[in-house]
Amino acid sequence: MCEQFVARSARPFAIGDLWPFAERLERYGIAGFGWGAAWIAADGSLGVHRDLGPFREDGARDRIGSVETTSLLVHLRRPSRLSTLTDADTQPFVDPAARFVLSHNGDLREHRRLREHYRAQGRIHGRADSEVAARWLEDEWQPGEKPAHLLGALHDALGGEANFAVLLPDGSAHHYAGNPENPVFAFRLGGVEILSTGIYSVDRSLFRYVCPEARDRRVVRQHRTASLA
């Protein structure tokens, strides 16, 4: 199972400021089978990095960590099916129309039926259920649509247990909580607001092992979307 978080700040921060948090999230979340990140660059463009190895071993960490941003999404992978350890299945997924970046944690019950539909269109490249979620969101995303509504509808369509993290080009970040085995928490680290999964611990052990310095802590209710706008 994966771990993921989105972060946002009113002032630019170095992405590397959150690397100690990400490293502990990977360690205590028992991830380490690939990772990826997306961020908003200073010129407003979208930066994306994905790697099949563990976050803690990626030589690109220092380069990415030196980048300043106001919005960040990080996905730390531990797939339910190790046969999906491929480039095509490594997250996050970027919308071809550049409307959003998506990552997923959990297991989607109804992905097989829709997979065949998208495969017939030539839009499936990997094996993971998360890619099906990305294709669904691409089709359903309309101008002015609220992410909170769409992420809830995505969960309704595919079922199962699902946390969805989304980063938009305007810098807003959203995290849908729909996996009761891995709750989503909201908190602050310094001046950065974060929405993060909770290392598959239904208590608040995230704050003991990963970020004891976190402030303004709260849990995101199931089937709700928390937003950092």
Overall pLDDT level: 94
In N-to-C order, the SSE pattern is EHEEHEEEHHHEEEEHEE
Question: Which overall shape is indicated by the principal axes computed on the Cα atoms?
Answer: globular
Return the structural class: alpha+beta
The radius of gyration over CA amounts to 16 Å
CATH secondary-structure class: Alpha Beta
Count of domain modules: 1
Which features characterize this protein?
single chain; alpha+beta; Glutamine Phosphoribosylpyrophosphate, subunit 1, domain 1; seven-stranded antiparallel beta sheet; 6 helices; 23% helix
Description:
- The chain has 229 residues and is an alpha+beta fold.
- Helices cover 23% and strands 33% of the residues.
- The protein contains six helices and twelve strands.
- It has a seven-stranded antiparallel β-sheet with strand order 3-2-4-1-10-9-11. It has a five-stranded antiparallel β-sheet with strand order 5-6-7-8-12.
- A hairpin with a 5-residue loop joins strand 7 and strand 8.
- Helix 3 crosses helix 4 and helix 4 crosses helix 5.
Summarize the structure.
This protein is α+β, with helices and mostly antiparallel strands.
Please give the structural blueprint.
Blueprint: E1 3-14, H1 19-28, E2 35-40, E3 46-51, H2 61-65, E4 68-76, E5 93-94, E6 101-107, H3 111-120, H4 129-140, H5 147-158, E7 161-167, E8 173-177, E9 184-189, E10 192-197, H6 206-209, E11 215-219, E12 224-228
Antiparallel strand pairs: 1-4, 1-10, 2-3, 2-4, 5-6, 6-7, 7-8, 8-12, 9-10, 9-11
Helix pairs in contact: 3-4, 4-5
